[in-house]
């Protein structure tokens, strides 16, 4: 179902009315975690001013350590919905439990499946039974075949609105958090009709590298990027080291503009 042999033209996926894919480059931005109203609304207002059409923010966080901030849960979802209303920004947020699919439905516009859950097949089926978009991130050690089969699970369960996302993989290299696999983008665009996004924030884990890798994402044919941002990264409860401030973010948008125009 994911194959280009079956469908030659690009799939267009709607996230709360914002269409992604099909040759248009779309930016999704927001904090790693929803931490509170001031934090979330501050970032939402900033990205809105920068012309970004979609807001990201985690309410349920799949943290490596059980002692790290786990997210605000339902309270976070309520804040996301409030931000969506206030700034007219459809929302992308991660689901980590199949039982949360119905609960989340009214609060979000796109379910994110995180790298750690790419092969959580019950979770894939749960979002497959919904009619909202799904941003499916590549597992940190998943092959592209495995990623495409994970997407196949969602579509086979009844939901064709899948967006693939390359977010960096584990390699021998330790200079960066992950190794952003740009081969994957070109390969997936060739093999599949689904939109393909790049996450340069988790892909590099290094603030200064987000900008060049975002330009590379445009050049290699990605349909968009998902980027983490925080107005006060030092205070962030997760991934502050890779969060773009308002100034960083303005620079990113200015820097990718000519590449988007030329693509
Ligand atoms: C995230 O988007 O904050 C996240 C946890 O991403 P990943 O699943 O790619 O690590
Ligand atoms: Mn993060």
TrEMBL record:
Keyword Lipoprotein annotated: no
GO MF annotation: an example: 3-deoxy-7-phosphoheptulonate synthase activity
Record gene name: aroF
Any GO BP annotation: aromatic amino acid family biosynthetic process
Keyword tags: Transferase
Protein name as catalogued: 3-deoxy-7-phosphoheptulonate synthase
Taxonomic source organism: Thalassomonas viridans
Domain DAHP synthetase I/KDSA, chain residue ranges per copy: 17-251
Documented EC number(s): 2.5.1.54
């Amino acid at each position: 179902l994911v194959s280009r042999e079956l469908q030659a033209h690009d799939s267009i996926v709607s996230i709360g009315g914002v269409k992604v894919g099909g040759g248009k480059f779309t930016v999704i931005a927001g904090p790693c975690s929803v931490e509170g109203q001031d934090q979330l609304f501050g970032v939402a207002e900033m990205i809105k001013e920068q012309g970004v059409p979609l807001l990201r923010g985690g309410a349920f966080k799949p943290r490596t350590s059980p002692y790290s901030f786990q997210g605000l849960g339902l309270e976070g979802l309520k804040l996301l919905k409030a931000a969506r209303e206030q700034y007219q920004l459809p929302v992308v947020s991660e689901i980590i439990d199949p039982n949360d699919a119905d609960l989340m439905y009214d609060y979000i516009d796109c379910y994110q499946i995180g790298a750690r859950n790419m092969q959580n097949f019950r979770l894939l089926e749960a979002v497959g039974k919904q009619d909202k978009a799904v941003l499916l991130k590549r597992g940190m050690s998943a092959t592209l075949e495995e990623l495409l089969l994970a997407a196949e699970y969602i579509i086979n369960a009844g939901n064709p609105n899948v967006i693939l996302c390359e977010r960096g993989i584990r390699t021998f290299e330790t200079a960066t958090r992950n190794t952003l696999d740009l081969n994957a983008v070109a390969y997936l665009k060739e093999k599949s009709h689904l939109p393909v996004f790049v996450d340069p924030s988790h892909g590099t884990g290094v603030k200064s590298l987000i900008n060049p890798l975002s330009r590379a994402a445009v050049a290699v044919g990605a349909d968009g990027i998902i980027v983490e941002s925080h107005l006060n990264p030092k205070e962030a409860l997760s991934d502050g080291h890779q969060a773009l401030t308002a100034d960083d973010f303005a620079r990113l948008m200015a820097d990718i503009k000519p590449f988007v125009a030329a693509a």
